[in-house]
Amino acid sequence: MFSRRTDLQLDRDQLGGFLPWLIAFMVFLSVLALAGTLALNQLAGRWDTGMSGTLTVQIKPSAKAIAGGAGAKAARAQDEKRLRSAVVALKTTSGVASAEALSEQNLLTLLEPWLGGGAVAGDLPLPRLIDVQLERGAEIDMAALQNKLTAVAPGAVIDDHGVWLARLIRLVRTVEALALAVLAFIALATVGTVIFTTRTGLAIHQDAIEVLHLIGAHDSYIARQFAGRALALGLKGGIIGLLLALPTLWGIGALADSLQSGLLPDLSLGVTHWMTLLVLPLTVAVIAMVTARMTVMKTLARML
Amino acid sequence: MLLRERFRFILRVCMVVMNSESGVVRFENVGLRYGLGPEVLQDISFSLAPGSFHFLVGSSGAGKSSLLKLMYLALKPSRGLISLFGRDIATTKRGELPSLRRRVGVVFQEFRLLRHLSVFDNVALPLRVAGTREAEIQKNVAELLEWVGLHDHLEARPPTLSGGQQQRLAIARAVIARPKLLIADEPTGNVDDAMALRLMHLFDELNKLGTTVVIATHNKTLVEKLGHPCLGLTDGQLQLTAGRG
Prior knowledge:
- The complex is a heterodimer of chains A (304) and B (245).
- By secondary structure, chain A is an alpha+beta fold.
- Chain A is 68% helix and 8% strand.
- Chain A folds into two domains: 10-49 and 166-303, no CATH class; 61-154, no CATH class.
- Chain A has a four-stranded antiparallel β-sheet.
- Chain A is elongated.
- Chain B has 245 residues and is α/β, with parallel strands linked by helices.
- In chain B, the strands form two sheets. A six-stranded mixed β-sheet of chain B has the order 6-7-8-3-9-10, sandwiched between helices. In chain B, strands 2-1-4-5 form a four-stranded antiparallel β-sheet, covered by helices on one side.
């Protein structure tokens, strides 16, 4: 497909200096876009498997418990009773695998990113939550379950994660699609650049190419030399781009970690993802090589 | 003497006619014009028998280079039929042209050497294009460069050579692959008479080995000395003159 020895002076034209840096820039952007896509894809998958088949039931605190004062303790006891009744009602519902009330301490831990570590149970009128796991493939009649819960625990509200999760995943998928579109545009721009530089190279070396033709060179003999050159320049540019992108990715990761906050979802990449990113320069180089070859073959086909 | 020359002329004409169907090169009513300009070649018809040696003569601008370009497939005729080694060029597929071109050695008027390649690599080019083994290339190229007197310049680049050396290099490149047809456009224009004669002897040697040779030249002394038949171009039209050989 390509040749190291060239009869054309391809390594001396100025394109040799220009193309690797352009490809490096393209690979840099591609690595960032691809890393974003892979991380978002992983996140959406994790949300999907982690949250589907679950419900949260919220038991709001009664007005007396919120107001505080003399009757607050009794009101809280009453709220606790409603919570237990709701848990029992849920456990006896067909399709529910488990129902577990979250302790007040667990609630505070969940809210720590927003409230900080100093909040104490009882300082705030927090709703109590029941984490409900559904059986695999269970179809729950939400209206009937809501009625059942209201009957035993007035003020209980079912929070079906499916609705907001579907929206969130749709958003993530849209961003993912945009990142893929960016990748496609980068690939197109790379192809366009290689076509342009190859055509320029063909024009620069037209006389030598004509001589090669006249002494009996096939188009593929000439195309091999351009393809080999494009592969070498593509690899050079790709490696430079990757070497620039990796510290950038590491920097973004380190910055996210330094926030030490549960506000940002975990966007870390797995081994497969890193391998995919490492293969990117080679992919770009192969695209450059194939593009150069096709451009030369197509252009030479117009010659006698 | 006159009778003898006439007999030879008739014999040669007969040979040309006999080989017209199987000629190495055959032109039939070929015309050539560049763009919308006038025809630079008109109704050219001739056939070169295998193993023949012809000079192509004519004044400057008569169309010699254009005729040679048609012969080494650098141009397509505007009309007429050209066949090379029995293949009609108009109906030959583009992918099959390289195999025809490999059987033709060309010495271009302006040499057209690859400036960045060494003397050795320039001569080796036709063999490399044809996929010849490197060991064979090394041997054959070295031998030929010795013969044309460039063995001391193996690694030199063409721009560092004199006009005569470049011309010898161009000739070496044209003959290295033992072509069946050798076309040379003013191959002795930049060398002294002694070297011109030496190069002509090289062409003669190749001719004796079966190569058909066509040489465009202004050098009347050489034409007369070697006595080969001439294709004469005048105002785009061709006339065949018998030689003394």
